[in-house]
Amino acid sequence: MADVLSVIPASVLRNLSDKLYEKRKNAAIEIEGIVKQLASSGDHGKISAVINLLAMEFAYSPQANHRKGGLIGLAATTVGLTSEASQHLEQIVPPVLSSFSDQDSRVRYYACEALYNIAKVVRGDFVIFFNQIFNALCKLSADSDVNVQSAAHLLDRLVKDIVTECDQFSIEEFIPLLRERMNVLNPYFRQFLVGWITVLDSVPDIDMLGFLPDFLDGLFNMLSDSSHEIRQQADSALSEFLQEIKNSPSVDYGRMTEILVQRAAAPDVFTRLTAITWINEFVKLGGDQLFPYYADILGDILPCISDKEEKIRVVALETNEALRAVEANPTENFDVGAVLSIARRQLDSEWEATRIEALNWISTLLNRYRAEVFCFLNDKFDTLLKALSDSSDEVVLRVLDIHASMAQDPLHFRQLVVFLMHNFRVDRSLLERRGALIIRRLCVLLDAERVYRELSTILEGEADLDFACVMVQALNLILLTSSELSDLRELLKQSLFNAAGKDLFVSFYASWCHSPMAIISLCLLAQTYQHACAVIQSLVEEDINAKFLVQLDKLIRLLETPIFSYLRLQLLEPRRYIWLLKALYGLLMVLPQQSAAFKILRRRLKTVPSGDQLKRASSGNPYSQVLHHSGSKITGDGDMDQYNGNLQNGIDLASLQQFKQMQQQHHMLAKSRAQLRDCSTSLLKEAIKSRTRTTSNIRDKEASFNII
């Protein structure tokens, strides 16, 4: 201490702690001159003593003016040392850094000023304290005093200049410090951090891109900041990094993808859009590095396809298409099961577009990795089947496409049809709303005959007779009206002449017996008019109810459509098609006379030529001899002898017994239900009477009590 006092006059030390800035400044100038003399003489021992005095007696003093003087003195000492200052930085810088957290804002201000002057002198040697300085500047960027903030900004710019020109800066040591602070919420801190990231990224010798995964999440977090300026700065930094990624041959896509996947589900629109945009570029650039992350990416892309923001939807759709276009190999870290699970999960989405794209993914996976998909099918099959009840027609059609692809395997075909029947059984509204759509689509995809044969086989043994009747009626209506089943109708029309047609008719017959109107329709379609007539004549009182008449009304109207044009033309030859005429008159007799169907059918039958009309028509017809061929006889269905053998081998009146037996089961079920209703009604009446008697007795007793 005595040595220092001999070097620095007491008056200088006194002025250094004066409350007036000018006196402190003048004292600092004198100290600068003294230090210069000591440095020129090489007396570094005394220089260390001076620095120690300024630190311990002034910079760390409890008196604010002493601390201010100490800071300006340390800066003056550094200026005096010039090129030799670097060997004393271990003594000079720590007291200044300590003053950055001083309670007095003026002390903090002078600390910034002191460190600024020190940094200008030592330049690159200053970098050894970079992490501590960075930490201090980060705090000062949000200082409550505006002057301190301004001083900190000036110092910050100088430090940035020094770092960008310095070879000693260690990015590896700095990144952990940056990573710790990236999730701060203070807007000043965020501005400070983004500024440093941008500056360091501009330095050619510093590879910030290699460390991007360490602070990428923080940058994305800033995109939702309330400050427009911060959002803009973060977006600008991210855009620059994305451009660098496009131009870089080596990028760690994996770690960044994990971050992007999380941010793509952020509530903030701008953050979601930016994350999806990055993922879109990654899909194009990442190649096989992204294979392990396909499931996670897909889990974000599919919901974004239905995003409220159009920009997000557009980018998500583009990304989805690019992702699906990549044909990955399961042996290359591509997890088919994980991607399939994500697609299955998205089938529960409330958005139609997302569900459709999820189904497109399942279809793509099934086409490319059929064996692998079938390994996971047990877990996904039920979900796919349940999707048939979706509210969207397009979703249902896509589901059916997938099921049709799977149904190439007979086992899955059977499963599909059985499940459909189960769903229709438990949810009759599904049958009403979607039954026709589902069955028609399956007929297109899987061959109508195959589908109808399987449905007929299942219905033949159906225990729920009511459901069987409703289902057969639905299938019959589809068969009669759908353009997709035109080939099936043509085959059935040849039932009397063609073995395949006869076999198809027989396969339908047993299940169609659940509904009288369905079996009549089938016979009219197959031109087995004699059998149709027999079925009509076998109808009993229980058969002709309101439901039957509704079905009959539909059939009469269908007879006027192009589908049954062949039948109407056959009425031109009543002698040849006598059983057709009888069948139609039988239906007319069943219909109420005031019904619209009765009037339609009666008008049609009135147009049938009479005997005299036929004679006049045949006399002028050069081909009439064909109708009266000497060696031929006409059967009831208009077939000549050459077809009689086929008719005997097909459906004849003996088959009527099968129809009667089935209808008997329906009658017994109806009677048992009627008896049950009657029993329930009787019990209810008895209960009401009993309660009435009890109430009457109570009232009588109350009346007697009142009289007493």
Range of helix content? over 70%
Low-confidence stretches: 617-636, 639-650
Given the C-alpha coordinates, what overall shape results? elongated
Tell me the number of helical segments per DSSP (H or I, 4 or more residues long).
Answer: 38
The number of strands is 0
Radius of gyration: 47 Å
> First CA to last CA: what distance?
124 Å
Q: Which strand-content bin applies to the residues? A: under 5%
Give the overall pLDDT as a whole number.
Answer: 85
SS-based class: mainly alpha
Provide a descriptive summary of the structure in words.
By secondary structure, the protein is mainly alpha-helical. Helices cover 73% and strands 0% of the residues. The protein has 38 helices and no strands. The longest helix has 52 residues, at 656-707.
Topology:
Blueprint: H1 2-7, H2 10-16, H3 21-41, H4 44-59, H5 64-81, H6 89-99, H7 105-122, H8 130-140, H9 146-164, H10 171-181, H11 187-201, H12 212-222, H13 228-247, H14 253-263, H15 269-286, H16 294-304, H17 310-325, H18 336-345, H19 352-368, H20 370-375, H21 377-386, H22 393-406, H23 410-426, H24 428-446, H25 448-460, H26 465-481, H27 486-493, H28 499-512, H29 516-526, H30 529-538, H31 546-558, H32 565-570, H33 578-590, H34 596-606, H35 611-619, H36 624-627, H37 644-649, H38 656-707
Helix pairs in contact: 2-3, 3-5, 4-5, 4-6, 5-6, 5-7, 6-7, 7-9, 11-13, 12-13, 12-14, 14-15, 14-16, 15-17, 16-17, 16-18, 18-19, 19-22, 22-24, 23-24, 23-25, 24-25, 24-26, 25-26, 25-28, 26-29, 28-29, 29-30, 29-31, 30-33, 31-34, 33-34
